[in-house]
Amino acid sequence: MTEYVHGYSEREALRLEEQADTLEELLHSDTIYPPGEKVLEAGCGIGAQTVILAKNNPWAEIISIDVSPDSLEKARENVKRKGIENVRFLQADIFSLPFKEESFDHVFVCFVLEHLQNPSEALKSLKKILKTGGTITVIEGDHGSCYFYPEGKKLLQPRTALSGYRHT
């Protein structure tokens, strides 16, 4: 497991919750699953997106996974605090999923691939557990669209660390 670039502090947890709240309408307005469908949320972190996904789809069965036991504990607390009951959490690695092939109707991935060494392998792993005709929703940030003026080496360091962007 590679370390999460943002760390696991309480401040980071608050940032993730605020990010989810701010982007809720933009990211989740059309993420609606039919009743009885089985959804895998891959890389749920502290459950900031999980809460919204589950709230908007109370009739769906959602299984949320993450590699971090500490993040999963926070996710369980967040879901419990909101009174959500249609989510089950499992510690699992996105590259070695503990599910049979074609066992999910839908896969939801939000702000995860950008943190992985090999995102294309993660998507291949997720495709295996997706039923034929199922859907996958992938949401990622575009860290390469950030510009600074005047541009300086110190300003570019965070962008380089997050996105692999190289200034030429």
Write structural notes for this entry.
The protein has 168 residues and is an alpha/beta fold. The chain has 5 helices and 5 strands; from the N terminus they run αβαβαββαβα. It has a 5-stranded parallel beta sheet with strand order 3-2-1-4-5. β2 (61-66), α3 (69-81) and β3 form a beta-alpha-beta unit. The longest helix has 19 residues, at 10-28. The chain is globular and about 55 Å long. The two termini are 31 Å apart.
The number of distinct helices, counting runs of at least 4 residues, comes to 5
What is the gyration radius calculated from CA atoms?
17 Å
Strand order of the largest sheet: 3-2-1-4-5
Sequence stretches where pLDDT stays below 50 over 5 or more residues: none
Shape: globular
**Quaternary structure:** single chain
Main sheet record = 5 strands, parallel
**Mean pLDDT across residues:** 82
Into which percentage range does the β-strand content fall?
15-25%
Number of strands: 5
Protein structure class: alpha/beta
Helix content: 25-40%
| N-C termini distance | 31 Å
Order of helices and strands: HEHEHEEHEH
